Amino acid sequence: MKTREMTNDQALILIAEDDPDDQLMLQDAFEESCRHCELRFVCDGVELLDCLTVINQNADSQLPDLLLLDLNMPLKDGRQALLEIRANPAFSTLPVVVMTTSKNDEDRTDCLAGGANDYLVKPTTYQELLTTVQSLKTYWKTYD
Question: What is the pLDDT of residue 141?
Fold first, then answer.
């Protein structure tokens, strides 16, 4: 896998989210807050792990700068996907932020113990989502 040289806000964000409305809102928020971000969406945990496997097997591919992971997805949920991602040494440096509707303390504790870098409850307003997207830049933005 190649390491990408980035400037300013440039980043590749992989988003595992099955809800089309949430995908659209995330796309809009990233376009407004991070115009140079490239987004890739997958709709379930199986598709997510397949995508990461292809990246890992292709020497010209780049590991995403951030994975936003929904917990409640079909086929393989975010909890299962997180465990499999963290079990693979090739993805040990991949920042994973769980972004979910679950306010359950047990989910939060389990995800952080399972290797998530952060756990965020999905914002309820678009303005809050913009603020959240801005805060996510700390995962890839380098400061001079």
Answer: 56
Mention every residue, 6+ apart, whose C-beta is less than 8 A from residue 33: 130, 133, 134
At residue 5, the 3 state secondary structure works out as coil
Q: Is there a contact between 115 and 85 (Cβ–Cβ < 8 Å)? A: yes
Residue 63 tokens read as 């590991």
Share of the chain above pLDDT 70, in %: 89
Instruction: Give me the domains of the chain, ranges plus CATH numbers.
Output: 11-133 (3.40.50.2300)
Tokens at 79, concatenated: 């909890």
Report the 10 Å Cβ neighbour count for 50. 12
Residue found by looking up tokens 């190649």 in the block: 2
84 CA to centre of own chain: 15
pLDDT of 17 higher than 70: yes
